[in-house]
Design a protein that fits this description.
By secondary structure, the protein is α/β, with parallel strands linked by helices. It has five domains: 2-203, Rossmann fold, CATH 3.40.50.300; 211-337 and 362-396, P-loop containing nucleotide triphosphate hydrolases (Rossmann fold, 3-Layer(aba) Sandwich), CATH 3.40.50; 405-510, Winged helix-like DNA-binding domain superfamily/Winged helix DNA-binding domain (Arc Repressor Mutant, subunit A), CATH 1.10.10.10; 531-614, Orthogonal Bundle (DNA polymerase, domain 1); 622-725, Orthogonal Bundle (Arc Repressor Mutant, subunit A). Helix 14 packs antiparallel against helix 15 (355-373) and helix 24 crosses helix 26 (560-569). It is globular.
């Protein structure tokens, strides 16, 4: 042992210049040198690479490092060469190499100069490479980003499932598998697939003390992001969006508002992409707006904020992406904009996929929803998801800093636990919550649980409430999720003890981000300009008066978000109204005069200093899409043809048309409505909006009947209604 330690420290200093190891590195490397299978779970920034690089330099033979990212391989090979005098010490073998380069790599390996050979999993499966590797003295296999093996991981790669059979063909050697994120389910999956269930497992804590987590309602998100960045000027940040289109739009909007930002996504050519990445690393730009393609293996220690414009598809993805903030131990703010509508969009994207994949995808999405809507300490929830217990609250996340009122949960917990036992511990939390609140879904009926003694036993509370109780029971360790049949709830020993001897436990109710009170929306969930309550009342009274005079519903004149924005920005000229959300030139001209006069009077009387720096400029002519839509409707083109031409589905096109109309532009879509709808139907929807209290589509569907009217029809007639009466 002494001998191994001596060799370790000597080589650590010689190759890497360090005097000491970080965390569990020393134990891991010792385990690899002893020829044992090793499983390493270590958060981003913990020093995973050293765990296979150092033993590769010490051990006889060549270590085969299997890694999914070509860019990452190149960086690591360059880094290894900088530690050694011999350039042949490290090589990579992947599709980016020429025939000559491949021959050179193979010669160095056969000549025993190469200690680390990085291989993409796709290259590993090629017959010629398998035959070549059979001739090599392999010291061990390192499998980086091992979560790619599991279908439950956030970045599943089918070719990773074939690694073990190929290793068996090439020749057995110890394995070290490494990942920065893995739930117990994913860990079990990786070990099983690699046939290393007996491996020694080294797990570092997933807790990152310097990260601040916050979830905000997705209201005026672009504007909130701009305000946040302007108040954190000069700091580096990453903003994640799910679609390439949104990445480009947002990067453009940030630039227009004086922020140094660039886009990054897989649809860009490699040259631009790598140039944008380099500019970010060299601090020529402050912000990268990216899809999840960005950030893996990017070693920028001083990213000060990570913003999610769209919520990720899984909590593992979220942890991985937020983990790119504050890797130097300094400030790291992780802010996510959340709306359940985004979750529904993600569910729709999954519809064409195989059923098994859909089930996994939905299960992972529900975990994300649970995290977003919960009012429990955020790090506590995250750690629990990765199988780690955290005793105290962090006192540094939105939920700890703005705690919701707590209530005594003892009786609710007992009822939940008894229900789980009552259905033989064979169901997921959604199902248990439906039973308790008395909702006879098709699954509840299939299993005859609507006849169970627990059906409706908690019907005074809704499904959301019971889900919150179950999640807090998980965090408290009273229940656990089965690993083999992921998601099935089972009682732990503590859970059984709790039923026997219940004790006081305070719980909180979940957030409801899709029905946030007005004042919270206006404040944008933390530290930004709040609505002027007095002014909003004055503006609503004025709107009511005008509505009466013009015989129109009030929302036709200006919608609530527009009034709220006026009560933050205090526009006193008609052209300033154009900067208000949902107000275009047409609307400002038609209704704006009385509103700006009232605001001017109010500003003078109260001696208000207006926050002009909060005016967010929008990108003129959004990539020409809006202009194209307006011109095409003028030419009476079918909406289906317009949608196809711009690669949108019909609902996305309707979103665009609604935005155009709500900003005050008149559009005549009568020609299209005549084609798809009879007059009676059209008249009925139109009349409904004349009398309606609000413009809500859900309320319209409920009132008119979902069996007779579709959301598409109602939205299209509402566009006609706004265009004719509001603009």
């Amino acid at each position: 042992m002494e001998n191994i330690q001596e060799i370790l420290y000597e080589n650590l200093k010689k190759f890497f210049g360090f005097d000491s190891f970080k965390g569990t590195q020393e134990e891991i490397i010792t385990n690899v040198l002893r020829g044992n299978d090793t499983f390493v779970l270590m958060p981003t920034g913990g020093g995973k690479s050293l765990c296979y690089q150092l033993p590769a330099l010490i051990k006889e033979g060549t270590a085969i490092v299997i890694s999914p990212l070509i860019a990452l391989m190149k960086n690591q090979v360059d880094a290894m060469r900088s530690f050694s005098l011999d350039d042949g010490v490290a090589h990579f073998l992947n599709s980016s190499l020429t025939k000559n380069a491949i021959a050179r790599v193979k010669k160095d390996v056969i000549d025993r100069r190469t200690r680390l050979l990085y291989v993409a999993p796709e290259s590993l499966t090629k017959e010629e490479n398998i035959e070549f590797l059979k001739k090599v003295n392999i010291s061990f296999y390192a499998i980086d980003e091992a979560h790619c093996i599991s279908e439950w991981g956030h970045d599943f790669r089918p070719e990773y499932r074939r690694i073990r059979p190929i290793i068996n063909r090439i020749g057995s050697a110890p394995i070290i598998a490494l990942t920065a994120t893995a739930t117990l389910k994913v860990q079990h999956d990786i070990q099983k697939n690699l046939d290393m269930l007996e491996a020694n497992v080294f797990k570092s804590s997933f807790r990152r003390h310097n990260l601040y987590y916050e979830i905000r309602p997705k209201v005026n998100a672009t504007k909130e992001i701009i305000k946040f960045i302007l108040s954190n000027q000069g700091k580096s940040g990453i903003i994640y969006c799910l679609s390439r289109k949104k990445v480009e739009q947002l990067a453009e909007t940030l630039t227009v508002n004086g922020i140094k930002a660039l886009p990054y996504h897989a649809g860009m050519d490699a040259m631009t992409r790598s140039s944008n990445q380099d500019q970010f690393l060299m601090e020529e730009v402050d912000v990268i707006v990216a899809t999840i393609a960005f950030g893996m293996g990017i070693d920028k220690p001083d990213v000060r904020f990570v913003i999610h414009y769209d919520i990720p598809k899984s909590l593992e993805g979220y942890y991985q992406e937020t983990g790119r903030a504050g890797r130097d131990g300094g400030e790291g703010k992780c802010i996510t904009f959340y709306s359940y509508k985004d979750i529904q969009k993600l569910e729709k994207f999954m519809q064409g996929k195989p059923v098994a994949e859909q089930e996994i995808g939905n299960q992972l999405l529900m975990e994300t929803v649970a995290f977003a809507e919960s009012s429990v300490c955020r790090p506590k929830l995250l750690l629990n998801y990765f199988g780690e217990q955290m005793e105290e609250d962090c006192n540094n996340c939105d939920n700890c800093l703005n705690p919701k009122e707590k209530f005594e949960g003892k009786s609710y917990l007992v009822l939940s636990l008894k229900t789980i036992l009552g259905v033989k511990e064979k169901f997921k939390s959604e199902h248990i919550a439906n039973i308790l609140s008395g909702i006879a879904t098709s699954a509840v009926k299939t299993y005859k649980h609507h006849h169970s003694e627990y059906f409706g036993a908690g019907k005074e509370k809704d499904v959301k409430f019971w889900n919150a109780v179950l999640r807090q029971a998980l965090v408290a360790g009273l229940i656990t999720k089965d690993i083999e049949n992921y998601g099935l709830l089972k009682l732990t020993k503590s859970g059984h003890d709790f039923i026997e001897k219940p004790y006081s436990m305070m719980l909180t109710q979940d957030h409801d981000y899709d029905s946030v009170p007005e004042e919270e929306i206006a404040a944008g969930g933390g530290g930004t300009g709040a609505v002027d309550e007095e002014l909003i009342h004055i503006l609503k009274d004025l709107r009511k008066k005008m509505a009466k005079k013009l015989s129109l519903p009030p929302f036709v004149i200006f919608q609530d978000p527009s009034l709220e924005d006026m009560a933050i920005q205090y526009p006193v000229k008609l052209e300033e109204l154009h900067n208000i959300v949902g107000v275009g030139a047409g609307k400002a001209k038609k209704y704006g005069k009385e509103f700006v006069d009232v605001i001017q009077e109010y500003v003078d009387e109260k001696d208000i200093i207006r926050p002009q720096d909060m005016v967010v400029k929008s990108v003129v002519n959004k990539s020409g899409v809006k202009v194209y839509i307006i011109q095409s409707i003028d030419r009476k083109l079918s909406l289906d043809d317009i949608a196809n031409a711009k690669n949108l589905d019909i609902m996305e096109l309707i979103d665009e048309i609604e935005a155009i109309v709500s900003s005050g532009t008149k559009l005549n879509i009568d020609y299209y409505l005549e084609e798809i709808m009879d007059d009676e139907k059209l008249e009925e929807i139109y009349e409904y909006f004349r009398e309606a209290e609000t413009e809500s589509i859900d309320e319209a569907l409920a009132e008119l009947g979902e069996e007779y009217f579709s959301e598409e029809e109602i939205r299209l007639v509402r566009i006609k209604f706004f265009s004719e009466l509001a603009n």
